[in-house]
Design brief:
153 residues; alpha+beta; 3-stranded antiparallel beta sheet; 5 helices
Length: 153
């Protein structure tokens, strides 16, 4: 760590304290060159990966936009906001957990469909019909059969 007063890199840590509320660490330091003391804070930086669309363009992940598309599928369905928020949290966690800097939007769509299938089968079919661009009644029939299959644990 470089001293903010004399720019020396010869500093030592005098005291370290963690703050679980802000998920940060406070360090009291002393510069060996100028003898001045200063405080630094370390905090984990959790970044969402950028999304790569089908056409190759890139965009930032927007939780509100994702929530909006899920809410359209869940319109007039009996699913609580808390359950939707929990599903969104799981999607974000899985995206962060990939460790990738960029993720295709197709992966996000699959994660959304997986979460919707747990929340509400009708919402899942609504979302799948748009996401997979259903063209025929057979496409809907296949989605219904997919939802009816017993899930493996």
């Amino acid at each position: 760590m470089r001293c903010p007063f004399c720019s020396s890199e010869d500093t030592q840590v005098l005291d370290t304290r963690s703050n679980p509320d802000t998920n940060s660490i406070r360090r009291r330091r002393k510069c060996a060159s100028c003898d001045k003391r200063f405080t630094t804070y370390e905090k984990v930086e959790l970044r969402m990966p950028r999304l790569v669309k089908k056409d190759g363009s890139r965009t930032d992940f927007e939780r509100d936009k994702l929530a909006g598309s899920m809410m359209v599928a869940l319109r007039k369905r009996q699913v609580s906001t808390d359950k939707v928020d929990a599903a969104l949290d799981r999607i974000e966690e899985k995206l962060r957990g990939t460790g990738e800097r960029e993720v295709p939007t197709a992966k996000v769509g699959e994660l959304v469909m997986r979460e919707l299938s747990k929340l509400d089968k009708v919402a899942y079919i609504r979302f799948a019909s748009v996401y997979r661009s259903f063209d025929t009644p057979d496409d809907f029939r296949e989605a219904v059969l997919e939802v009816k299959k017993p899930r493996r644990k």
